[in-house]
Design brief:
A two-stranded antiparallel ribbon has the order 1-2. The chain has eleven helices and two strands, in the order ααααααββααααα. By secondary structure, the protein is mainly alpha-helical. It has a single domain, classed as Up-down Bundle (Rhopdopsin 7-helix transmembrane proteins), CATH 1.20.1070.
Length: 380
C-alpha cells in the first residue's frame, strides 16, 4: 500500500532540528522529554534541539525561587501590615507604597510555590490552564508594579518640582490612581487569552511566559506594543520626572549657598530646607527602587526581543536567568523601604522588637510620602 499524502506537521521540523544536534550531545534525550502530553502542543519546536538541563540547575533554581518567595512574602507582608496599622503612615502617597508591596506580595505568593514544585519534577506539572494563569499573574503583577512606581515618581515630581504651588494628592486621588493601574495592567494581561499573543512554557519547562518564537505579526505586535506600554513608556516618564527633580534640587541648593554667602554664614538651616532635604532623600530611595526594577525586568525583555527578531540563540539555561531576575524585583522593595525610612522602621521595631538591632530612629519622615507639610496645609 502506497502512502500518497502525509503531512508531518511541526513535530517533524522539531525532530529534524533535534537530530542535527545528536552528534554533539551524544544522546537522544531532549529538554522536552518530561513535559506532560497535554502540554506538548504549547511547546515550540525550538526547544527540541536542546538536551535535558542538568538536575543541579533545577535544584538551584528551585532553592533560589523558594528563598526569594519567602523573603518577598515576609517583607512585603510586613510593609502592608505596618502601613495599615500605623496611623501616621496612612497618607495618600503611602497608598501607592502599599499597592506596590501588595503587588509584589501577590506575585511571589502566586508564582514561587508552583515554580519550586515544578523544579522538583523538572517540568511544569500543573497543566495548560495553570500555565496560562501563571503567566497571566506574572504579567499582571509586573505591570502593576512598574506603573505604581511611575505614579510614585509623579508624586515626587509634584512635591519637589512644583513645591507649594502643587495640589496635594488626596486619598480619593490615590485610590483612583491605584484603580487605573490595575485596570491598565489587567487589559494587557488578558489580551493573550483572546488571541493577541500567547502564553507558553519557557525553555526550562518549569515556568510559563509570553511566546517569543511565534513569528506571526499578531504575536510579534503584542510583544512590541506591550513592551512600549509597560517598559519604555514608564521608563521615559520616570526619567522625565527625576530629571526635573534633580534639576530642582540642584537649583535649590545653589540658591541656598549663594544666600549663605551673602549673609556671611556657613549654611542656612530652616524647617523648609529640612523638609526639602528629607524629600530629596526619599526621591533617591524611589529612584534606586525603580532602577532595581528595570535591572530585574530588562533580561526578560532582551530574551523576548531575541526570540521575535532572532538576534541570538536562546537556550533553556538562558531562560532561567530571565525568570530569576524578573522575580527578584519583588524582593527589593521591602528591603529598600524598611532600611531607608526611619518612620517605617520605628513602627516595625514597635511591633516586632526582636528585629531591632539598632537604636530606634527618632526621625518622623514619612515613607515615600508627599511632603508631610503640604498634607497638613489646607488646599487653596
Amino acid at each position: 500500500m502506497a502512502i500518497t499524502s502525509l503531512d508531518p506537521g511541526p513535530g517533524a521540523a522539531a525532530l529534524q532540528a533535534w537530530g542535527g544536534q545528536m552528534a554533539a550531545y551524544g544522546s537522544n534525550e531532549t529538554v522536552v522529554d518530561k513535559v506532560p502530553p497535554d502540554m506538548l502542543h504549547l511547546v515550540d519546536p525550538h526547544w527540541y534541539q536542546f538536551p535535558p538541563m542538568d538536575p543541579l540547575w533545577h535544584g538551584l533554581l528551585g532553592l533560589v525561587m523558594g528563598v526569594l518567595g519567602f523573603i518577598s512574602i515576609t517583607g512585603n507582608g510586613m510593609v502592608v501590615y505596618i502601613s495599615q496599622t500605623t496611623k501616621t503612615l496612612k497618607t495618600p502617597s503611602n497608598i501607592l507604597v502599599v499597592n506596590l508591596a501588595f503587588s509584589d506580595f501577590c506575585m511571589m505568593l502566586v508564582m514561587s510555590p508552583p515554580m519550586v514544585v515544578s523544579c522538583y519534577y523538572e517540568t511544569w506539572v500543573f497543566g495548560p490552564l495553570a500555565c496560562q494563569l501563571y503567566a497571566c499573574a506574572g504579567s499582571l503583577f509586573g505591570c502593576a508594579s512598574i506603573w505604581t512606581m511611575t505614579m510614585i515618581a509623579f508624586d515626587r515630581y509634584n512635591v519637589i518640582v512644583k513645591g507649594i504651588a502643587a495640589k496635594p494628592m488626596t486619598i480619593n486621588g490615590a485610590l483612583l490612581r491605584v484603580l487605573g493601574i490595575w485596570a491598565f495592567a489587567l487589559s494587557w494581561t488578558i489580551a493573550p487569552l483572546f488571541g493577541w499573543g500567547r502564553y507558553v512554557p519557557e525553555g526550562n519547562m518549569t515556568a510559563c511566559g509570553t511566546d517569543y518564537f511565534d513569528k506571526t505579526w499578531v504575536n510579534r505586535s503584542y510583544i512590541l506594543v506591550y513592551s512600549i506600554a509597560c517598559y519604555y513608556m514608564p521608563l521615559f516618564l520616570i526619567i522625565y520626572s527625576y530629571f526635573f527633580i534633580v534639576q530642582a534640587v540642584a537649583a535649590h541648593e545653589k540658591a541656598m549657598r549663594e544666600q549663605a554667602k551673602k549673609m556671611n554664614v556657613a549654611s542656612l538651616r530652616s524647617s523648609d530646607q529640612a523638609n526639602t532635604s528629607a524629600e530629596c532623600k526619599l526621591a533617591k530611595v524611589a529612584l534606586m527602587t525603580i532602577s532595581l526594577w528595570f535591572m530585574a525586568w530588562t533580561p526578560y525583555l532582551v530574551i523576548n526581543y531575541a526570540g521575535i527578531f532572532e538576534t541570538m540563540t536562546i537556550s533553556p539555561l538562558m531562560t532561567i536567568w530571565g525568570s530569576v531576575f524578573a522575580k527578584a524585583n519583588a524582593v527589593y522593595n521591602p528591603i529598600v523601604y524598611g532600611i531607608s525610612h526611619p518612620k517605617y522602621r520605628a513602627a516595625l521595631y514597635a511591633r516586632f522588637p526582636a528585629l531591632a538591632c539598632a537604636p530606634e530612629p527618632q526621625d518622623n519622615t514619612s515613607v515615600a510620602s508627599s511632603a508631610t507639610a503640604t498634607e497638613e496645609k489646607p488646599s487653596a
